[in-house]
Amino acid sequence: MDQPIATSLLPPRFAAWFQGRGWQVHDHQLAVLRAVEAGRSVLLIAPTGGGKTLAGFLPSLVELADADPKEKRTGIHTLYISPLKALTVDVARNLETPIAEMGLPIESETRTGDTPQNRRQRQRKHPPHILLTTPESLALLLSYSEAPDYFASLKTVIIDELYAIADTKRGQLLTLGLARLARLAPQCRFLGLSATVAAPERVAQHLNYGARPLDIIRGRDGAQPEIGIMIPDAHVPWSGRMALHAVPAIYEEIKRHKTTLVFVNTRAQAELVFQGLWRLNDDNLAIGLHHGSLAVEQRRKIEAAMARGALRAVVATSSLDLGIDWGDIDLVIQVGAPKGASRLLQRIGRANHRLDEPSRALLVPANRFEVLECKAAIEAALEKDLDEYPPRPYCLDVLAQHILCLACAGSVNPDALYLEVTTAASYASLPREEFDRVFAFVRDGGYALKAYDRWKRLRQMPDGGWRAANMTVVRQYRMNVGTIVESPMLKVRLGRGQALGEVEEWFVQGLLPGDTFMFAGRLLRFEGIREMSVVCSLAKSGEPKVPVYGGGRLPLTTDLAERVRAILEDRRQQRDLPDDVQEWLRLQRWRSVLPTRSRLLIESFPRGNKEFLVAYCFEGRIAHQTLGMLLTRRMERAGLKPLGFVATDYVLATWALGAPTQEQVERLFAEDMLGDDLEEWLEDSSMLRRSFRNVAVIAGLIERRHPGEEKSRRQITFNADLIYDVLRKHEPDHILLHATRQDAAWNLADVQRLGDFLKRVQGRIDVRRLDRVTPLAVPVLVTLGSTEVGNEAMDALLEEAAADLIEEATSGEPGQEAML
DNA sequence: GACCTGCTGCGGTATG
């Protein structure tokens, strides 16, 4: 029988198996096999559906095919790490097939938090050849005293979905673990599996240990996806975000296709779209819902039904971005703009895993701005122009946790450990001095906390190294392992009275005492945070300074923003836009002008008895939010009496009693805005305090869980606040405060973006003085009338509220074009 | 910041 050339390069048993399945071995699978056989580490970049996981395991299966089943082992051969528990289970199941069908003498098992006690015990004494686990469970394995034995014979580590964790604290903890493995098992090769990324070399660095050569291997690209924009009834709403107008059209698409995956951006939106579909569901189609607030059992049920092919559609948040591949999805619908090209491609890639057939996807813009954004996202996706993020600097809280981990396993020598830690790419530039300060913190808490016994966590061994002081410390470490810290909800209270409800912590972070916002139907004045409560007073009537939006929006990526600006500037690019949108832009040109790429357009007009200022910055909501905080402070000082602001991904709008002159505007937007003003704001807001809590939990200063009890979030916050105040007072340069400031700076990454923006627009600001609201400003002003978005009638209400604004913006004489 | 993601081991006693 003729054997395909490529397949004949496999060992006979494997070649026969491939043939029996009617498969041809892929080039990249063979390339990975050869590279790993030659002792090289590998980053494999391939789209889903290309047999990526099998490629990862092939070298191990081939090596282990001749293993002696009776051989007494103390360690494992291959370690597989995935960011999801569910994925380890799925991959284990998929591994069973080749192992069983070829009759290979290979044991493979999962090890996660779900693994029963007795099995974990057995695994420690009798390790399987292949162990599938998570980053957290790997950390636990490394904290056992038998870890050196357990990993001494390790040959291969496979890290799945590497790109998804590369630049997170979770990923940093993992890479520190990998650095440890490389030291325990110098012969070990590292094999990363990844979707397409903008900077493969940077992702590959996380696999780079010792002098082992590293290859980047690329699988063949799948067929170019077919992506369309859905405009039901040729109508696009002026504003709103839920896109409920499109639910009937989405329902029709579901009916027309075999299986549809409907992605949305927030949980609230998932609920609304799901309900909307269900109401229309006269055909009784099996439609499911999947997001993070649903009970785990509920989600597993949906996933299982999906795997069986029993569902026609699932409405999901990013809870289904990663995970099990379902072969039968023939349509992906993205409701609302995708906000970034990488996310869009990832989601489209969830459909149709036959490489040669194009994936089909539809984008559903919720409003007119989103049409521009969807168009930009499609262009970027087709050009494979992926989002690139700056690498995250090393996190010292993660390092502290890792040091404690190793001290649980055995005696730790700081000199050797420093060398080991700096082999991890994220920590390569860590100065010895900072390492020593972190080490000292793990040892005894550092100068200000030295007096307390509970933070003396290491004791010196006869060999000079350091080890966990006692079993309590070890248990504390194991119970608090990991970098994922839950973000608490805060109760909103009127004075000392009863709670009005709960609000997410992040919303309060940016507030300053005196700021007003709408909550539970009342206008509240923010007074401060006491323990877990947002203390407020009733505000005098007026409009809220900071509107509350139920569920936020993803910030627009820089790249997409740039593309949106390009579309606005170039008339030819506007020709294939829906008529609604073209008309909207035409009216804007007539009334005012369209923003351009090289200049900042600011419109100024009166409405009611207020003066509005609308800046078309296109820097994303987070950056605009910060800009709004800083700008209104400056307006205050300039005597303009600002009343409030609202930020969207595209514009920042402020309203005040006074209108600034052109000269004043230039001064308001001066570059020095990010200096003292920002510092002052940071100190005043509770941002640093909150960051400290996360850092303190990860670094092990505060326990999350304790034998027999789960610490309440209230206790955690209370303790963190207490220690924060002590440290600020007695040891302001404590290493954890240092880590806190680094964290805050990273979380304010958009400040960098803001800085670039301010620099770019200096001397290039066009202020248009107009007599009324302009068409482009309508969407953002519409949202002002509403204070509590999120319920389902809201989009309709918005549209209604828009009516008179639209009338005002689009009727009468052309606007006054006089420049100020 | 949207949205996600994960998570003792021991020494004791009772039971089959």
Helical fraction equals: 40-55%
Strand order of the largest sheet: 3-4-2-5-6-1-7
Multimerization status? single chain
Strand residue percentage? 15-25%
Number of helices: 33
How would you explain this protein's 3D organization?
By secondary structure, this protein is of the alpha/beta class. 43% of the residues lie in helices and 16% in strands. The protein has 33 helices and 29 strands. The protein has a 7-stranded parallel sheet. The protein has a 6-stranded parallel sheet with strand order 8-13-12-9-11-10, sandwiched between helices. Strands 17-16-20-19-18 form a 5-stranded mixed sheet. Helix 17 crosses helix 19 (432-444). The protein is globular, with a radius of gyration of 29 Å. The termini are far apart. Mean pLDDT is 86; it is low at 547-553, 786-794 and 815-820. The protein binds one DNA strand of 16 nucleotides through residues 83-85, 112-113, 117, 120-121, 134-137, 140, 164-165, 168, 170, 265-267, 291-292, 317-319, 321-322, 339, 471, 474-484, 487, 504, 506-507, 509-510, 551-555, 621-622, 625, 704-705, 707, 747-748, 750.
